[in-house]
Amino acid sequence: MAANNEIDLRRYISVLRSHKWLFIAIFAVIFGLGLTFTLTRPTRYKSMATVLIEDGSSDLAQRAGGSALAMMMRSFSIGGFASSSVDNEMVLVTSHELAYRTVRKLSLNISCFQTKGLTKQQLWKDAPATLMLPPGMADSMSLRNGFNVILHLSPDGTAEAKATRGRIFTTTLASASGKLPLALVTPMGTVTLLPSGTPLPPEKITLKFTVTGYAAATEKLIKQLDIDLADKAAEAITVEITGSCPPLDRAILDTLLDEYNARRTEHRRQTAQTEVDFLNERIENLFGQLIDSEKKIEQFKSQSNFVSIEDEAPILLESSLDAHELLLNANSDILYCEQVLHTLESNHETMLPAYSVPGSDAEADPMVSAYNEQLMLLNELRRSAMPGNHALQLAEERVAQMRKAVIESVSQTLSAARKAVSARSGAVGRVDSHLRRLPKYEREYLNLSRDNLIKNELYAFLLEKRESSLLKYYSRATLGFIVDPAFTSIRPDYTRPVAFIGISLFLALMAVGALALIIMWRNDRIVTPCDAAAAGLEKHTFVRGTDPTAYTNAIRALITSRLPSGRIYLAADSTLPSSATEEIIDAFRRAELPTTVVNGEKTNDTLLSSRLRELTERQAGSYVFITVPEADRIADIAPILASDDAMLVMLTSAGKMSRRRAASLATEFTPAKIILAIC
Asked: Residue 67 to residues 64, 73, 303, 469: CA-CA distances in angstroms?
């Protein structure tokens, strides 16, 4: 394969050289067309804008009382704003919805170009005329349902317009002429051409409006946008667009980012509105539950006479101790009064107890002290006075009267003490019973208080969340901070021109190469020695050229180097003159080599006769040149060429013998015994 490839390459170069002016013309035409197309295209510039993606929820959460844990999690990007969120924003910026909004806002489905010869320049706000579509027409147009409007506008304001469809084979949809505005009635609707307010040009110009639907314009815009991270360490993205109208490109980027922030704001407000609606409903329900919980606590306190165990327990314990102490004092009074009555009612004139049980009120009774004093005075009189003594009688009467008074007073005191004991026993029982029920009350109160506390905290939390959602709803903060508004590079973008030139160069070279291969395959003839390389005869092939001596000397040298003496068969095609074979014979004669020429044979069969064999045997030691009469039937003499003292010289015109014929000769005969001479 290596040899074949080398031979093919040389033949290929040979074809290129022989048809160089044809290939140069083809290359110049194709490359010239591509270069002309590239140079007539409008210059393109790259416009870009950078937006920083900020997490606006942090400030809102901080204003709304966000927890320290949540702030710390956001600081470490745990559930916060990480790189994946930036990727999400990149998807949103290039989303179909944002592109669709931008197309509608800037009417990108209508493009205006000013054509002049082969060149065209896109116009935007500086166009002297505008095109207006009827409502709904751009929405109903499919991806392939576009058309063009060509407007020829003169300096005096007269215009000629027509709507066409198709690029190569165009179809006229409508036409109109006159002063602007003009109406074109197309199958899709009526299209109106209006003056834009820009001064008319000083010469007649041609404007071409390309009209598509919003869907097609949106798909086109998405393909034009190029978005990437501004820096791997920063949460910022760069949006780029390349076009031939920098003001329009900058307007597209600015509008796209504005729509991005508007879409984000809409989404935030929708989310906040949903949260507010839910929170309002939840707060209303919770407020009713909170009122019910407070009523239950109020009813519980009213029914249980319970305020607070922390406040009631000390008071109740103190009341219980006081009640027990009062009950003990009352029982002491009863015992004392019973003792006094027992002493008085037994008619014993004994001293009454002056003191009761400690703590009793009876110890301070003045009647008992007065009675004891009178009784002591009576006993003294009885010891000193005689019976019937008037003072003694008076003393006895006083003691008797005082006994009755003491009995009556003590009886009343005893009755009051017993009533007090009865009343105080009930109070002590109620206080003790209430103290024993305090743990139960406390447990029930804790359940009610816990429910009320949870509802209060949840109510406060929901109010806080509602305020936070309202802050989000009314906040004007945008997620995307536009670091660099849209700007255009001062250097043109040569990516597409270089690509067009490269494609043109590639197509020109491919056309030249393909044509050269076709010529080479069609002209499968032997013209140069390399054409016989596939048959293995390249080193045995000689071209006559302008110097016949060199040509014949080379053939002679090859024959003599391989054959000291013997038979040389000369096979020349019919297009060659007899002088072609004579030049080779003359070369041997000039070299003073023994040479014999055999002529007069009529067919190849005679070359196999015994007469010719005897003749050649008699000429041993010399070169016998034998002319083959029928060169086309060279296979007939294959047996005699197989001997060691025989060699074949094939003489052919340039381009006469095919490469396939040379290959068959190399197959039928030994290549070392064949010499190919191209005359």
From this structure: 9, 10, 41, 16
User: Which residue is listed with tokens 């002319």?
Assistant: 627
> Which pair of tokens denotes residue 316?
């109740």
3-state helix, strand, coil in the chain (%, to 5): 60, 20, 25
Three-class secondary structure of residue 661 per DSSP: helix
Structure tokens, 68: 């320290």
Q: Output DSSP code: residue 608.
A: G
Mean per-residue pLDDT pooled into runs of 10, the chain (679 residues) = 51 81 91 88 90 64 46 45 69 89 91 85 88 88 82 88 85 89 88 87 88 90 88 83 91 91 87 89 87 80 63 60 67 76 70 55 63 75 72 76 78 76 65 64 74 86 88 79 86 88 91 86 79 81 85 87 86 82 88 84 77 76 86 82 85 83 81 85
Q: Which of 312, 314, 313, 304 is nearest to 444 (CA)?
A: 304
- Burial of 561 per CB tally in 10 Å (0-12, 13-18, 19+): exposed
Degrees, nearest 5: CA angle 114-116-117: 145
- What is the rounded distance in angstroms from the CA atom of residue 45 to the CA atom of residue 42? 10
168 CB contacts (<8 Å, ≥6 apart)?
A: none
**Tokens 């506008």 belong to residue:** 153
**SS3 category, 547:** coil
CA distance 213 to 145: 7
Cα(137)–Cα(44) distance, integer angstroms:
31
φ, ψ for residue 245, nearest 5 deg: -125, 85
Burial of 658 (0-12, 13-18, 19+ CB in 10 A): middle
pTM, rounded to two decimals:
0.62
CB-based contacts of 417, cutoff 8 Å, min separation 6 = 330, 331, 333, 334, 337
User: In 3-state terms, what secondary structure has residue 563?
Assistant: coil
Give the torsion through C-alpha atoms of 221, 224, 230, 236, to 10 deg: 10
